[in-house]
Amino acid sequence: MTDSKLNINSSNNHKDKEAFKKLYVKYMVCLRDKMIVQSVLEKQELNYKFSVHDAIELYEEITKVQYHELKRGLSKSGLILIDEKESMLIDRIINTIIEVIHYTDALPKLNFTDIISEHAGSKSESLLKIFSDVKGMSILQFIVIQKIERAKELLLYDDMPLLEIAEILHYKNEHYMLAQFKKVTGLSPTYFKRLKNERMKIAEQRLNPKSR
Length: 212
What we know:
Strand order of the largest sheet: 1-4-3
Radius of gyration: 21 Å
Shape: globular
CATH class of the largest domain: Mainly Alpha
Structural class: mainly alpha
Number of helices: 9
CATH superfamily of the largest domain: Homeodomain-like
Low-confidence stretches: none
Helix content: 55-70%
CATH architecture of the largest domain: Orthogonal Bundle
Number of strands: 5
CATH topology of the largest domain: Arc Repressor Mutant, subunit A
């Protein structure tokens, strides 16, 4: 294992650049795994960065020899490089979930299995297993986490009551959402409302320093 710190963006500047290829790694489910992957990538001097959802984004075309070397290097630590086709499916599933939860006014009444099938083109058990192997959690848990992230956003930026948030995110009731919220964050929605007020005070003091 490398002794260097995890370098999320590698040594290159990728601002406004589009990745040439995006690949996911099975069983890369903790920070130490990610550091191992980084070490293998840097040993091959590949131009890369990790995406928000831990895909390897490659910023230059790699040869078949480089691809197989990368695959072989990862396999020495029990990590499996997923091929481009399956990586694209995993990426579509992630983007579909993010899009539906974070960028729609209210979640559709269709269940997520149907939504994923419609947008990703597959809902096979093997793909669901690959997703779990890549993310270290089930699709259902990933959906729950994203819903709680959206709930936090609505609490912080929209001053929305819990009942309305529960309706937007299609919870059975606000009590069920509250239980899931506490389970995921370890905190209550009241904490985030208080956090919002603290942030507003800080911002106001910054804008009006004489009012301190």
